[in-house]
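#struct-pred
JK: can someone run the complex with (R)-mevalonate? inputs below
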Amino acid sequence: MTEKSSRLPGFYKLPLVERLAQIAKWAELDDEEVAILRGRGLQASQADLMIENALGTYELPLGIAANFLINGRDYLIPMAVEEPSVLAAVSHAAKLIRAGGGFHTESTEPVMIGQIQVLDVPDMVAAQQALTANEEMLMEAANACSQNIVRRGGGARGLEVRPFPDTPVGPMLVIHLLYDTRDAMGANAINTAVESIAPLVEKLTGGRVNLRILSNLTDRRMSTARCTVPAEVLACHGIPGTQVARLIEEANAFAIVDPYRAATHNKGIMNGIDAVCIATGNDWRAVEAGAHAYAARNGRYSALTDWHVDANGNLYGEMTLPMAVGIVGGATKVHPTAKVAMKILGVKTAAELAEIMTAVGLAQNLAAIKALATTGIQHGHMRLHARQVALAAGASEELVQTIADRLVEEGNIRINRARELLAELQSQQTAVLINGNGR
Ligand code: MEV
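RT: done, structure tokens with the ligand placed:
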């Protein structure tokens, strides 16, 4: 049952303080939480406890993506990103997807992979047999060191042994400990687990353990988002919706076959996913690493998405990718702004957060390839760029849009022109005032 709608018509036109008030009401934020969003976020003293050699903090814009309907529930999505257009684009795409019933998402169990590298193994076959025969014992040993996660229903799920007979340093055995980290991203838990079982692995294999570390290719911890966009809502700039759907399918095919295009295509997906990762205090480098490694899983780097015209002529979209994010531990519970972002999202599990991010990535991609396949990306970018130029020229809130529109119309988005227009408009305002007073 949807109680609150994430449709926020006209939100982008409101002054910042009114937007903030609207979100505060929506998410029932208290004064302290609103103050955090207004800039009283991470303090230098907290930063000092988070990293070494801290000097202070580094700010990024935080915005809200609207219109998201995921599995029948409305979400407002906090995104931290410096790039103009990202928020507008993703909210636009979410609105199109909403017209087709929104996103449908699912995830696997949150199983991470911990790797143990074993070298100098005297007998590779015997070592593999010994490991397999002692799988239960190794899993119990792994569980013994993270009682917290085990109590919450997580823990070791299995062992895999992967021989690499021919490497630059000779034969190597790689052991995968599969470990369910529940609502944690789990890097610490999994690293502790592999470090703790490494001596047992040495004993069982007769080899020497070198690295013990999680893999960021978390292909046991995957999320999927799907959607169908009715063709009619895709119509734009005089192009019929069915044709736009076909152009989007073609754009996706380009990224499937060509790694040069796939890199940019997937970068656009990560524009959205990273922004939610950052806003919620998650490790976006881990998610990036997983996404790109997964995109190359078949030996050639390719698109993470599938977009095609379905049997009814509508646009079907789907994306599956590794998504190792958490809602406990790490910066999610330390960074004040991340805590507020989590409250706005109102998620109950890491899987729910992962699925939201996947939906955001899919929507971000739809927005990008729809723009690329129709007007070209610069059209929208230029409108936002023009606003920034108008602001930089000193335009007041009231005049920014008028000046930006003129700059775009004239195809001359330069600060000098913005200053000229500003002077013109200001002198017109003064004239109106004088005439008004004289009457
Ligand atoms: C820009 O940050 C992202 C895009 O280049 C993505 C794409 O090309 O699909 C617009």
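RT: quick notes.
The mean pLDDT is 95.
The two ends are 58 Å apart (CA to CA).
JK: thanks, will look after standup
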